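Annual report, structural modelling task.

Input specification for the nicotinamide-adenine-dinucleotide complex:
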Amino acid sequence: MNIGIPKEIKASEYRVALTPRAVKKLADMGNKVYVEKNAGINSGFKDIEYKESGATIVSSAKQLYNKSKLIVKVKEPQKHEYDLINKDHILFCYLHLAADKSLTKMLLNRGTTGISFETVQLPDGSLPLLVPMSRVAGTLSSHIASNMLHKDKGGLGKLICGLPGVKPAKVLIIGGGTVGLSACEAAIGLNAEVTVVDINTEKLSFFYNKFGGKVKTLPSYPDIIYRECKDADILIGAVLIPGSKAPKIIKKDYIKNMQKGSVFIDVAIDQGGSGETSRPTTHDDPIYTVNEVIHYCVTNIPSLVAVSSTKYLSNEILPYVEMIADGKHETHLPLKKGINTKNGKLLIEL
Ligand SMILES: NC(=O)c1ccc[n+]([C@@H]2O[C@H](COP(=O)([O-])OP(=O)(O)OC[C@H]3O[C@@H](n4cnc5c(N)ncnc54)[C@H](O)[C@@H]3O)[C@@H](O)[C@H]2O)c1
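The model returned the following structure:
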């Protein structure tokens, strides 16, 4: 199959979908791989490395889309890219359609096969291609929040780990999945006081068993979240209903009730956000405040560490790219779950 790897054009997106090593494997299998000029440069991979791996470098996105059937990229196509996409393309990337009506409409109008990383699902319900970037985003969310507590960022002026005779910062994590776990591990590593809230009691048991008394676990009820938000220094939104718009469980009132200078990182913003006060931001302008609570709602957090993220993502998606190139996406059940649009039909519930 002809496979194209474009350069990402989303604001401050430094990742690329596949490394030269992954490209070599695809080329050795008999696929023809096209890579857009400088696609890997911000992740530490030069064009020459792709060329030596068997790829053909093309100088424009237009050429790449014209020559390729399977487009493998990281983030959802941006408006500038819409005109490049047609019915014959199979698009494999993070799509997050629940948060993007215009992209959904475009894919349906074109009749494109859109397979999203985040809805590929194993029989046990897990999401193998969401997990890698959720791990990265979860870890970073605690690090970023710790930094946002500093006075120069408009934060409370608290040191996350506390000091002898001084309490550590309180981190409240809503959603104990992959993002929640990584955020929790990082926050505990920073010596913060951590509370995890989840709607699924099995998740609460998992956290209790893994961290014992080090982490407080609570069920997801509005009054509990309201109460816990009040004295949280850091609030991390990490909920997900796979494929759907994030539930807006962090209400305006809860934010109003938080301390001035506290920090809300809404990691779930790529699915529309878990807060009523959340709106997407970029790495170039990542924060805004509501009632003097700092909001950080960047939709592509893992791009901050593009060198690490690209390697991790490429390793995880490669087996699926191989299957799609072999035409197995119609029969392989986890991949079939990833198909969001096909022949003008929407195949997931938004
Ligand atoms: N902004 C970014 O750069 C970025 C990067 C990676 C992931 N994400 C997003 O982060 C979010 C979380 O991803 P994940 O991989 O951790 O998902 P996950 O499925 O592993 O975990 C989600 C958790 O939310 C819980 N949940 C659902 N509804 C809830 C509710 N009402 N109250 C409390 N808990 C609830 C679920 O039980 C589950 O434990 C997703 O929206 C994902 O797309 C964003």
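Residues 2-111+306-345 form a domain with the Rossmann fold fold (CATH 3.40.50.720).
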